[in-house]
Amino acid sequence: MEHYGRRCQGMLTTEPPSQCDYRFRFKECRFCNGENDIAARRCGHCGEAIIDPDDQLKDALQLKDATVIRCAGISFHQQGSRLQIIYHDEQGEELKESFDFSKPKQLQVFNQLFGRRLQQSQQPRRFKSLEEVLGCQQQFSHPDFVIARKSGHHLRVTERIFDYQEITEKRISCNRQKTGQLTRITRNA
After folding, report:
1. Is the residue at 186 inside a domain?
2. CA 29 to CA 36: how far, in whole Å?
3. Can you give the pTM of this predicted structure?
């Protein structure tokens, strides 16, 4: 089956036939990690409100202990059983986080955050080892923005905003349809 659009429109050949629920672009619910359409305001799984990325960025920029970068790329480095991810911004600033692959919970968190973030991915990927991740590191999509909060003497990555441009483009399209005129949304970054 070939996928197309933000959400696959194909029908599964099951009895009874059902629509494929694969999403190419999505917003994750911070409460249940459910995948939702990029324009969703409420989670279709748990019903909680989904935070608008613009509001999330504005709130983070107002905090004294938060750092927000516009991510231009990511790099992966092995440190024993740990995977260190470095988010690079356009001015050379970096934010780092790491996942200990020897701990099942850390591996599960990595898979939840990045298993669907491979370029050209048709299915979510469940990584089992650090070597497997490093073998396909060039295929990972980087987030558009990364938010970190000060924790002691270090910054801890708290949010990664993917697909930011598509979310704002969808909002522009909706506004045009509602008002019948061109509406511009500017990004402060």
Report:
1. no
2. 7
3. 0.68
